[in-house]
Structures are given as structure tokens and as C-alpha cells.
Design goal:
Elements: H1 2-14, H2 19-32, H3 36-49, H4 54-64, H5 71-83, H6 88-103, H7 112-122, E1 137-138, E2 150-152, E3 156-159
Antiparallel strand pairs: 1-2, 2-3
Helix pairs in contact: 1-3, 2-3, 2-4, 3-4, 3-5, 4-5, 4-6, 5-6, 5-7, 6-7
């Protein structure tokens, strides 16, 4: 962690983060078998000091684990990079996309979208917080969405009310 702190300080003085050096430190840390907490702290440190580099820092951290990366490690890296951002909710997509790209054809890459949704739900600036936890169908009028609303799987409201549902793609209304 001391090395990462030194790199971040040097980057702040120089005005840019040296991603090659960051990747080297993350690789060393993964080879040394540091805990997920330590890896997350290093990712937060670098991504927080240089928000524009957060996707690159997160993808470098995931690559440092090698082909045996686990879903929990990916979740930790994404959450750590997101938590250090000035606007965490909007940073989830670019960070997750960079991580998914870094994973390539790894079986864990398929889990990144669901990890991203879980991380986004936990961000303090999530605009959908408290909207609905319903899986699908109509939200009841006494729930958080006034008048009810159609929701997609995962609880995302798509508009409409029980009396005027949102448009459907099927003209027959099915």
C-alpha cells in the first residue's frame, strides 16, 4: 500500500497517474496474495486521486489477478473504484465496461453486468433509491411510486400507471 500511496503522490505532483507503474504495483500485490481489502484500498487510492483514470485502474486491478480471478474479487475492485468517485452512480457504467473488457472471454465477464447493478444500487447518489424493490408488474399505488408504475425485471420503473400503462412493443397489448 505504501508503494501505491507513493505513486499517487508522485502522480499528483506530476499532474498525471503513471498507469504502467500502477499496473506493476497491482500485479505485485496480486502475486503476493494481498487480501481483497488491501487490493480495494489500493484501487480506491488511485481511482480517487485520479477519477478520470478510474476505469483503467479497475481494469488493471482485475487483470492483475490473472485468469483465475473470482467474481468476489471483481465485485471488490468495481465497488472500490466506484466508491472513491465524486459521482459514484454515473461512474459505475464506465468502470464496469472497462473491467468487462479487461476480463475478455473469462467466465467472470458474464457476471459483470449484475455486479454493476448491485454496485449501482449501493451508491449514495443512486436516483432510484427507494423507488421500488418489486421484480416486475405494477407497483401498487401505496408504494413509493405514486399511482403505480410498470417495472422491468430488476425493479427499474419504466413509466405508466395502472390506468394508463406504458407502451408495449406488441400492438396487441401482450
Amino acid at each position: 500500500m505504501k508503494k501505491m500511496a507513493d505513486i499517487v503522490q508522485a502522480g499528483l505532483k506530476a499532474g498525471a497517474l503513471d498507469m504502467k507503474v500502477v499496473s506493476g504495483v497491482l500485479n505485485e500485490a496480486a502475486k503476493a496474495g494481498v487480501s481483497d481489502h488491501v487490493m480495494g484500498t489500493m484501487v480506491s487510492m488511485a481511482a480517487g486521486a485520479f477519477p478520470s483514470n478510474a476505469p483503467a485502474v479497475a481494469s488493471a486491478a482485475v487483470r492483475s489477478y490473472g485468469p483465475d480471478v473470482k467474481e468476489e474479487q471483481v465485485r471488490n475492485v468495481i465497488a472500490s473504484a466506484v466508491s472513491s468517485q465524486p459521482h459514484p452512480y454515473v461512474s459505475v457504467a464506465p468502470i464496469s465496461e472497462a473491467v468487462e473488457k479487461a476480463l475478455g472471454n473469462s467466465p467472470v465477464a458474464a457476471a459483470v453486468p449484475s455486479i454493476a447493478v448491485g454496485v449501482a444500487e449501493q451508491t449514495p447518489d443512486n436516483p432510484l433509491t427507494g423507488v421500488t424493490a418489486q421484480e416486475r408488474g405494477l407497483v401498487k399505488p401505496n408504494e413509493d411510486v405514486p399511482g403505480g408504475s410498470l417495472v422491468l425485471p430488476g425493479g427499474l420503473p419504466i413509466g405508466g400507471t395502472p390506468f394508463g400503462p406504458a407502451p408495449v412493443s406488441n400492438p396487441a397489448g401482450n
